[in-house]
Design a protein that fits this description.
alpha+beta, three-stranded antiparallel beta sheet, globular, 4 helices
């Protein structure tokens, strides 16, 4: 796994609850832009982005709450990198891990969650359509239709 230096100016994103999925999973919308600093470069997730925190099966909620503040920033960034297909899945998953660590998630728990997205994240990633990808890219001022946008993390994407 590639290492990234992460800094979170704000530990918890400001959100408003929207509604629930059919399985009762919480869904939220960013109330204001949220910054994740990766390798010294600010990455801004724009106000209005809708995400579902961590996509954890209900069976495991007793161990991993979907909206736990420790991994909320990682889940938020991961949801965006998947939804907008900014990077390949491996890069998005590696960033998810390191952002969770920066947010205070214990390494063992972060590793379990990382392994889960490596194993099962492809199902979500493959469901995207060109329209769904472009919806979130346009919110962030990105107009390229390349999928993924770039293969590896690059400063200045967000």
């Amino acid at each position: 796994m590639k290492h990234y230096d992460i800094y979170l100016p704000e530990k918890i994103p400001n959100t408003i609850g929207l509604y629930e999925y059919e399985d009762g999973r919480p869904k939220a919308e960013l109330e204001k832009d949220y910054c994740v600093v990766i390798n010294g470069e600010p990455n801004w997730i724009k106000k209005g982005f809708v995400f579902d925190y961590a996509s954890i099966p209900r069976l495991f909620w007793c161990l991993f709450l979907p909206n736990d503040p420790m991994y909320a920033p990682g889940a938020l960034y991961h949801d965006l990198t998947y939804a907008a297909e900014l990077f390949n899945r491996k890069v998005a998953d590696d960033l998810f891990y390191w952002i969770m660590i920066a947010g205070g998630t214990p390494r063992k728990k972060a590793k379990i969650m990382y392994n889960a997205v490596r194993l099962f994240g492809g199902f979500t990633y493959k469901q995207h359509t060109a329209a769904s990808v472009m919806k979130w890219r346009h919110l962030h001022g990105i107009h390229s239709t390349l999928r993924p946008l770039i293969p590896d993390y690059s400063p200045g994407v967000l």
